[in-house]
Amino acid sequence: MPNTRPLIRIHNLETDQIIDREMNDDEFAQYEAEQAVLAAEVADKQAKDAAKADLLAKLGISEDEAKLLLG
């Protein structure tokens, strides 16, 4: 049966023992919250990039030309 949650790796440097285990409920809740924040950031960046590309297309200029105008 495949894992349903990401794994946590614990490496004891004193004994060189490595333990891999599934995230517990608290760790998984934090992981999901972080993933939601990352997904929102990616969606926001994609929306901004699309709006920028749309504006440049309306103006009929390239991104390099816009940088020259604003720089």
Verbal overview:
- A two-stranded antiparallel sheet has the order 1-2.
- The protein contains two helices and two strands.
- By secondary structure, the protein is an alpha+beta fold.
- The longest helix is centred in the middle third of the chain and has 35 residues, at 25-59.
- Helices cover 61% and strands 17% of the residues.
- A hairpin with a 4-residue loop joins β1 and β2.
- It has helices spanning 25-59, 63-70; strands at 7-12, 17-22.
- It has a domain at 24-70.
- The relative contact order is 0.09.
Write the layout of secondary structure elements.
Elements: E1 7-12, E2 17-22, H1 25-59, H2 63-70
Antiparallel strand pairs: 1-2
| Integer-rounded radius of gyration | 22 Å
Structural class by SSE content: alpha+beta
Given as residue ranges, the uncertain stretches (5+ residues, pLDDT < 50) are none
Termini Cα gap: 57 Å
Query: Strands of the largest sheet, in order across it?
Result: 1-2
**Any idea what the shape is?**
elongated
Short account of what is shown:
With 71 residues, this protein is α+β, with helices and mostly antiparallel strands. 61% of the residues lie in helices and 17% in strands.
Notable features of this structure?
single chain; 71 residues; alpha+beta; two-stranded antiparallel ribbon
